[in-house]
Amino acid sequence: MMKRAMPAIVFAAAVLGASARAQGPAASFTADPQKSRLEFTGVQAGAEFKSVFHKFTAAVDFAPDAPASARLDVTIDMNSVDSMDKDRDGTMRGADIFDVAHFPTAHYLTRSVTKTAAGYAAIGALTLHGVTKDVPIEFQFTAVSGGATLAGTAKLKRLDFGVGHGDWKSTEWVGDAVNVSFSLALKPKAAP
Fold this sequence. Notes:
With 192 residues, the chain is an alpha+beta fold. The protein contains 2 helices and 11 strands, in the order αββββββαβββββ.
């Protein structure tokens, strides 16, 4: 009985070892700025508006079978905000909203990533307007020829980050809830 059991144990160990090796380290990517998009949706005076950030960088380390080793690191140029309304954009860049003169960038860095039924979920630290708080995101990762895509969403409250002073602190005219969506076209990071 012992002799028959031994080959099964050896086989199981070999399969598990091969599976662990197959996962390997996370692949490293950078977002292609020409093909990637980062936007948010808010509400002003009861009407929904959408804004994009034209300038941001994203570095991604990801292996689909090993989400615990994943890392998403995004830096946003807040001055690049564009809502297709020059007056609103000027107000958002000003001292009462984003205050880009004092807080020119926002930064998001994942703390943990897990697999879900719909894709992946992450918790990350968002630093915005000088305030750092954890923000969850949900996303899908898809391997494509020559790289990958990473697309997802997040929800946050602007007042949690002190975004909105004076008349803009009231939620009567500008909603507190902000929905973020992103689509990153990833290309393999060049070797150093």
